[in-house]
Amino acid sequence: MLPTAAAATIALLAATGAAAHAAPAFTPGAPGAGDPALPTYGNGGFDVAHYDLDVRYQPAIDELTAAHATIRATATQNLSRFDLDLIGLTVDAVRVDGRPATWTRDGWELVVTPPRGLRQGRPFTVDVTYHGVPKGWSIPDDSGERPPTQFGFVPTDDGAIVLGEPESAMTWYPSSDHPADKATFAVAVTVPDGLAAISVGLPLGHTTRSGWTTWRWASRHPSVTYATTIAIGRWRIDSHLHHGRPTIIAVDAALGPQYDAPVARTDEIIDYFETLFGPYPFESAGAIVERQPGLLAALETRTRPIYPSDRFEDTNAKYAVETVAHETAHQWFGDSVSIDFWYDLWLNEGFATYASWLWDEHDGFRTVREQFNRFYDYPLDFPFWTPAPYDPTDGDAIKSSNYYRGAMALHALRKQVGDPVFFALLRTWAAQHRDGNASTEQFIALATRLSGQDVRPLLLAWLSGPVKPVNPDPPPTA
Ligand code: TRP
Ligand code: ZN
After folding, report:
1. Neighbours of 157 (CB within 10 A)
2. Longest dimension (CA), the chain
3. Which residues are CB-contacts of 246 (< 8 A; sequence separation ≥ 6)?
4. Residue 124: count of CB within 10 angstroms of its CB
5. Nearest CA to 175 among 263, 51, 262, 275?
6. Percent of the chain's residues with pLDDT above 90
7. What is the tens place of the pLDDT at every residue in 158-186?
8. Taking a C-beta distance cutoff of 8 angstroms, is the pair 144, 151 a contact?
9. For a substitution probing ligand 1, which of 299, 307, 311 has the most ligand atoms within 8 Å of its CB?
10. Residue 129: exposure state from Cβ atoms within 10 A (0-12, 13-18, ≥19)
């Protein structure tokens, strides 16, 4: 036995040592990704690498009768618990690394507590078994003349389709539903025989058993969650190789052949954009044309954009093709190069809009200069001018200024730096941030470096300034 004083000293040392080597504190992950516009979207404390989904859908009752999500992620802090985003639906079981976990629901936060804390840097797997009737959003038309606008998970007359931005994933699978957390994605969709399920990436075939057919899709490239989808129904499918890459175009079988024409130009549009923006970023391409009335708009679902057929009904067919060009351009800008914060959305929408102007000029519709001046001439109080696109303090996730003022900003930059630098900039941007995320500040820095000019004041005047900048490309005087 040690003398009392020595024992006390040793006890003290032991206690100090214990404190120094104590288990690090494990704390809850944040319920959101930290985006000022949508603070509870996405989640903190971990980073998703991959979603593997296996869902069964019974259209007769609009129900996901059996669904399973396997999510591979890595802890980015010592995690005591973490959230996923999931709207409605019933969770039947959650496992973390194969061990049963407890969970609670709080709005669309699915709060998961694993049996033990997860150390920072540790990869882990979450398995969620769930089912139920998915609930998207439906906004009634005030006039009562049009069908309600629907987005998220939308049941259709022959199946279902998912499309929505900023959110949609959380209406059908537990996710970190924010573009900052890109992940690869694989899905197996089981539907009654006679129906097909289209998704993003490469087709891995389908198998039939006891009246049900399972359709499998997977992608090697990481995706933002809002660009994932499933489209279930009866389709007229054109599947072919273009430059060795599968192009898969699915048109709702209830639609006449005139709806095939705009999307049939997808390959040609990709070829043109490759000359401007560099290689097409994905392993596959295509389109989905859905007849369901009331869908909000076309959406750049990755490799296979969704086009509501009512967007193809203008008497001038060039408008439909312009939409195909817009969504196809998003494959480079938005889907391959993605944003970290919603306030950078002009990097998606301004670029896709400008690309569609370039396509229109190439296709003999209207010139970029005409398009630029058409928008430039609107007064400054028009919604596509104000509020301005780039304002990190603005809480709007999606605003029309990202599209038209964003595109005008690019045209002003092009006029300032000249075509060779401008197009080198777009190609470098697409190559440097391929499969990643990027910001307005990074774009300004790259434009400054490649042009050797201080283009920051010009870009900020177009993207954030309170006054209309001087027109750099006025119409020719008659
Ligand atoms: N990103 C789409 C486009 O540029 C537009 C869009 C925004 C959208 N939110 C949506 C489309 C929700 C469908 C549903 O074309
Ligand atoms: Zn767009």
Report:
1. 12
2. 106
3. 202, 203, 239, 240, 283, 284, 285, 286
4. 17
5. 51
6. 91
7. 999 999 999 999 999 999 999 999 999 99
8. no
9. 299
10. middle
Q: Integer distance in angstroms from the first to the last C-alpha of the chain?
A: 106
DSSP category for residue 411: H
Q: Tell which atom from ligand 1 comes closest to the C-alpha of 334.
A: 1
Residues in the chain, total: 478
Confidence class of residue 24 from pLDDT cuts 50, 70 and 90? confident
408-428 confidence digits (pLDDT tens): 999 999 999 999 999 999 999
252: tokens are 């709702």
Amino acid at 83: D
Percent of the chain predicted with pLDDT > 70:
95
Q: What are phi and psi of 80, to 5 degrees?
A: -90, -35
Residues near ion ligand 2 (CB < 5 Å) are 349, 352
Q: Which two tokens stand for residue 324?
A: 């195909």
Index of the ligand 1 atom closest to the CA of residue 398: 7
Q: What is the mean pLDDT of residues 10-27?
A: 58
| Bond prior to 166 in cis (omega within 30° of 0) | yes
Distance CA 421, CA 413 (A): 10
Type of residue numbered 108: W
